[in-house]
From TrEMBL:
Molecular-function annotations in GO: single-stranded DNA binding
Pfam families in the cross-refs: ArdcN, MPTase-PolyVal
Name of this protein: DUF1738 domain-containing protein
Domain Polyvalent protein metallopeptidase residues, every copy: 212-316
Lineage summary: Bacteria, Pseudomonadati, Bacteroidota, Bacteroidia, Bacteroidales
InterPro entries the UniProt entry points to: ArdC_N, MPTase-PolyVal
Sequence ranges assigned to domain N-terminal in this UniProt record: 21-157
Length: 560
């Protein structure tokens, strides 16, 4: 390694020592790449993202250094812990059996990680509060405090530097399974769905334009990223890694992290920006199981990076802080999109597995030419249907379902056009007679059934009445499975009953080989239960002369 000039101070503090070490490690990595620039930033498929033993991920700056540390020392499990955490593993609970002590192996040296802490002091009372409590204050309350950031250095050990494998074999086995080699895509044109959606739906902080040309760059003046098409790269992985580099640049825009101005491109100062983008791209690629090689356009900056690092290790502090902020922006956005995709897939799977719910539409506001529909018309003409739906919802007065105007389809009249609907509302427009708007509230079939049970169908629409008929048919079929319902008449004759859904009647007659020979039909009363309807039919039959005998004979009754 080339000679490295450390700062000349009487007593470097822990932060200075950590930065000295970080600078040495980055220099060593850059010199290795300088000898063979086709080597990747991190060994292909070697490590997952570093975390502590509690499972919390380290941020971009610390993650970068811990991965380099793991590679240098040969650690295969990128999990770390402080000395205090190791000691806490030896504190048993009340009912826990005593386990072998966990300890750091003799002679092992810790590695620094740098965390920013905040001291919050009240401007008048000088009272200190925790930063978590400060974040929960209102904006006015926060104005009463001064907040002082401070970089603190904590020392950590890799789990391989402890006897965890022998003292806690179950935990060690779990860590080995969790931290196996990440899957590296070997297909030349594999797709990374979260980033593909980011490009397609313009979800990044600036447009990403994929064009058939030869350059990949971020334009400050136009605030856009230009990259060649994926098929122009040797692999899909190369496409995404190049894009991560340019996305790193885009975070430096004045309206975002404000790292550079337009004049800095091509200047000496831009050498640092190129290093930030390179490290940011390498970190992001590593997080998602890809291998990032140094961008060929960045190779001319290698000497400048090395010179700056050897001259002033403080240089690495500003670089790493910028990398931390930039890579966090990128990974947070990608992770958010990945979560959204996973939620969508789960919802689609649930919809696929569960029977599709039948929806009904209840008119809650019908706006005609006599009503002021001007604002609705303006939104419709603009094509702003989301705005139209939001405005239409304001016409709903909060009343429940009106069964008279509840239908299985939102389209009831010739010329009806469903403009837009969401989970709860729909807006139907009819251009005839100066235009009308029907705002409809959506109900599931179960909600319609509950409404029928409570209010009946005295004034219901034909669609609601069909639901009521289905309910009776299902209930009648349920009792039929147990035993065919029948009436035993006073004269001893047995009459069988069937519900005729088409006619909405209870049919009564005698059983034959070809089915029920119907003698009588009684209109079904949906304002009463099935048992009440059967009881009424039984009473009517008993009063018919043809089924009566002498008064002293025992009267018949309904039986199932």
């Amino acid at each position: 390694m080339a000679n490295y000039r450390k700062r000349d101070t009487d007593g470097p503090n822990s932060e200075d020592k950590a930065l000295d070490l970080f600078a040495e490690m980055i220099i060593e990595k850059l010199e290795t790449i300088g000898k063979d620039w086709k080597k990747p930033w991190f060994t292909e498929g070697a490590l997952q993202w570093p975390r502590n033993l509690s499972g919390r991920e380290y941020n971009g700056m610390n993650a970068l250094m811990l991965m380099l540390h793991c590679e240098k020392e040969g650690y295969t499990i990128p999990r770390f812990c402080t000395f205090d955490y190791v000691q806490r593993l030896n504190k048993p609970g009340k009912d826990d059996e005593e386990l072998p002590r966990v300890s750091v192996l003799k002679g092992e040296k810790s590695f620094p990680v740098m965390l920013t802490t905040f001291t919050c002091i009240h401007k008048e009372t000088k009272e200190k509060i925790k930063y978590d409590d400060y974040k929960n204050l209102s904006n006015d309350e926060r104005e009463q405090y001064n907040v002082y950031p401070k970089m603190q250095v904590f020392r950590v050990f890799n789990v391989a530097q402890t006897n965890l494998k022998e003292a806690r074999p179950d935990l060690w086995e779990k860590l080995e399974k969790e931290n196996g080699r990440p899957f590296v895509h070997e297909s030349e044109m594999f797709s990374f769905e979260p980033v593909d959606r980011m490009i397609r739906d313009n979800l990044w902080i600036c447009p990403i334009n994929v064009k058939h040309q030869d350059d990949a760059y971020y334009s400050i003046s136009k605030n856009e990223i230009i990259v060649p098409e994926k098929v122009q790269f040797k692999s899909g992985e190369s496409f995404y890694c190049t894009l991560f580099h340019e996305m790193g640049h885009s975070t430096g825009a004045e309206s975002v992290l404000d790292r550079f101005k337009p004049t800095s491109f091509g200047s000496k100062e831009y050498s640092k920006e190129e290093l930030v983008a390179e490290l940011c791209g390498a970190l992001t690629a590593q997080r998602y199981g890809m291998t990032k090689h140094i961008k060929e356009d960045s190779c001319p900056y290698l000497k400048s990076w090395l010179d700056n690092l050897k001259e002033s290790p403080q240089y690495i502090k500003t670089v790493l802080m910028d990398v931390k902020k930039a890579s966090s922006m990128i990974t947070q956005k990608i992770d958010q999109i990945a979560r959204d995709i996973e939620i969508e897939k789960n919802e689609k799977q649930e919809q696929k597995e569960a029977p599709k719910k039948k929806m009904y539409y209840a008119s809650v506001a019908y706006l005609q030419m006599s009503d002021d529909t001007r604002l609705l018309e303006e939104l419709k003409d603009k094509g702003d249907y989301n705005g139209l739906l939001a405005l239409a919802k304001e016409y709903y007065d909060g009343n429940g379902m009106d069964e008279q105007y509840t239908y299985s389809s939102p389209l009831q009249n010739r010329g009806d056009d469903l403009l837009i609907e969401d989970q709860n509302f729909a807006v139907v427009y009819n251009g005839n007679v100066s235009g009308t708007y029907d705002i409809m509230l959506k109900y599931t079939e179960e909600e319609v059934r509950n409404h029928i049970r409570r209010y009946g169908i005295g004034r219901a629409s034909s669609d609601v009445k069909e639901v009521a008929k289905t309910m009776v048919a299902e209930e009648f079929a349920e009792i039929t499975q147990k035993k065919t319902p029948a009436f035993e008449m006073p004269n001893g004759e047995v009459l069988y009953i069937n519900y005729n859904r088409g006619k909405d009647t209870l049919d009564v007659g005698s059983a034959t080989n070809s089915g029920l020979a119907v003698r009588h039909s009684f209109e079904y009363n949906h304002d009463k239960s099935l048992d009440d309807n059967l009881t009424e039919v039984n009473e009517k039959l008993e009063n018919m002369e043809e089924y009566c005998e002498a008064e002293e004979m025992e009267r018949g009754g309904f039986r199932r």
